[in-house]
Fold this protein.
Amino acid sequence: MYKGQLKSWKDDKGFGFIQSSELSQDTFIHISALKAMSRKPKVGDFIYFQVGKQTDGKVKAINCRIEGVAAKSLKSKQRHTPRLLKKSSAPKSKNVLLLAVVIIGVFSYQRLSLAPTTSPVPQTMLSPSSSISATTSPVISISKYSCDGRQHCSQMTSRSEAEFFTKHCPNTKMDGDNDGTPCENDSRF
């Protein structure tokens, strides 16, 4: 191993030359030979190095260290790596959380839209002695009928079914004179 003093250094290009009393000429040094050092070299630093040959036959400094300068510790590299991993996983967990919120929202919306609706009690269901007023008391009504696309009287099985379809389903063709009574001419009812 040789010892020499850094004679010149070009920081923008990352190289310089070492003058050593043990060698006949100045030795080229590249920043990559000092990658284990905690700081860049400065003119006047004493450097310990070995000599290697370049492809063009010239000599260069290899396995270098700066006298009095600490080498980079492996522990600082190990501490730095997990932080990078944590940062890269943060967007993924945010996306998973957002997806979970959307799924819960869609499920809740579907459950609420299937809830039974309230409607006033029809006058025909009240007895004269009943104390319930049809105009003021809403009652939860669970119907045995549902809109399934039927539109004509011939598709109905009862007058109550026809009345339900006329009131609740669009595009029905059962009340020709628009008086609110469906299937008036149907003899089945």
In short: Residues 9 and 42 are 7 Å apart (CA to CA). The first helix runs from residue 74 to 113.
